[in-house]
């Protein structure tokens, strides 16, 4: 799969509901929302851009009266976002070629999009271009310095067929080393994202890690389904502890370099 202009309604709905219908999904959502929202500067006049807004998960959680724009490649995602928000401007477009003038937005967020973009340098340069002087650009992306990334790379490689063979015999087509669902999925490390910010003229003022509870393990190794069914209270408690730890260690070295997500905030000076 890849995100395109023609992403199906089924994929869009599956993505949206993945954050609401399970304990693992709810933890992922609240952890990601918290990391980004606590770094945002919002007042009633802030002009906000959510670049790669998807179904509007962040806009629904952050905007009150302020003007905002949601941009995304996928029409179906934007349709769902507009349905959810019921106001605001939604634009079809690519991060690498933003259809806006220079110096327009006060605050820009870009969550879980960078990994799907081939020219990441150009995408960050575009975010910087459309950001006002003194405005913020906040990017959340998946960290390449993790076992999650190693696991993804194995599933994206030719090795996956060999490793998956015994699991496939036991578990069928959805075995845990089957082919990765995205054709292109390029995670970044914290230093890499900081370098991209630097090249785009953004001064990095915050580097955080996020989602320490590694929800991917629960999603891909049947652990989530099992524990949600048989020990949901333990699972909730585990994520509660993760949230507690995350709130204290997210910005502390070396934890910010090795958590499942990285969040970088830069200011255009
Ligand atoms: C994983 S979703 C994240 C959506 C949303 N930011 C969230 O966190 O819920 C990735 C989104 O990025 C969009 N996307 C992928 N490549 C893009 C590009 N080059 N330009 C703009 N949007 C893109 C996809 O259509 C999809 O909605």
From TrEMBL:
Domain of life: Bacteria
Domain Methyltransferase type: 49-138
Gene3D superfamilies (alphabetical): Vaccinia Virus protein VP39
GO molecular-function term, one example from the UniProt record: S-adenosylmethionine-dependent methyltransferase activity
Stored InterPro entries: Methyltransf_11, SAM-dependent_MTases_sf
PANTHER family xrefs: METHYLTRANSFERASE (PTHR43591)
Name used for this protein in its record: Methyltransferase type 11 domain-containing protein
Source species: Candidatus Schekmanbacteria bacterium GWA2_38_11
